[in-house]
What we know:
- By secondary structure, the chain is of the alpha/beta class.
- It is built from four helices and five strands; from the N terminus they run E-E-E-H-E-H-E-H-H.
Amino acid sequence: MNNVTLDTWGLDVPKATITVAIVDASGPPTTHGTIANDPGAIRKLVQKVGGPEVRLVVAYEAGPTGYALYQQLSSRGVECQEVAPSLVPKRPGDRVKIDARDALALARLLPSGDLTPTYIPDTEQEALRDLVRSRFDAKDAKRAQHLLLKFLLRQGD
Length: 157
């Protein structure tokens, strides 16, 4: 019989780096460290920590970096959950953002089912969302241009 161990990761994902916390079957959550937020570093981490005998499950908070991390991890066979930041249980005193603490909390909460995953669109849906956002931004820029021209007219320029 094939014995597969379960490792859960919590990732805190700002723009340039990823802080990794790991909970394995043998002990409490530990901070693995910080890696660069690029595909090569993510690939190396999965190869180093993962393996055929380890089932990896990852959680990270949804943010402005998009779905690239989800796509990178899931293409390597890693189960991913992008979770809503507002629904992550936090203690009242934890208002200051600390990457390692946030990653540890996600790693600790993932196995218990206390995290609420968000919907991850496929690449076609994501492209359509980007198109809609771009159209909205263009309309907003046109409105700002009109407002500026009206202001200049009122000033006599």
